[in-house]
Amino acid sequence: MSACEHLENLAASDFPPPRTPNACEDCLNEGTQWVQLRECRTCGDVGCCDSSPRKHATAHFHQTQHPVMRSIMPGDAWAWCYLHSIYGDVGVASRHPEAVGSRRT
Ligand SMILES: [Zn+2]
Ligand SMILES: [Zn+2]
Ligand SMILES: [Zn+2]
Q: What is the pTM of this model?
């Protein structure tokens, strides 16, 4: 089994600021309820988890192929790689000093 390079040395500072920190953007648009929130590492899109009726985080992956999301629920510090189907830890301290600040692409 190959390791997942996406989750290696992943830190909170590797994620862009969530576009909608307290809400699933698609649920707001559709008027549906979410259970928990996930943030896309690539673009900062916030979607709802697979316990939510609309599963927008997974839908976002299928639409965009952005491979990694993290939980943005309070107290959570984990990420998920859709490509490899594994969990990883999200470090609190930055191990990538050069990544601090905005590097939205
Ligand atoms: Zn991966
Ligand atoms: Zn949603
Ligand atoms: Zn994305």
A: 0.84
More confident residue, 93 or 66: 66
**Cα separation, 64 vs 44, whole angstroms:** 12
The bound ligand whose nearest atom lies closest to the alpha carbon of 33 is: 2
Q: Which ligand is nearest to the CA of 80?
A: 1
For residue 80, how far is its CA from the centre of ligand 2 (angstroms)?
Answer: 17
CATH of 12-93, one of 3.40.109.10, 3.30.160.100, 3.30.40.10, 3.40.50.980: 3.30.40.10
Chain Cα centroid distance, residue 94: 17
- Residue 81 in tokens: 């790689």
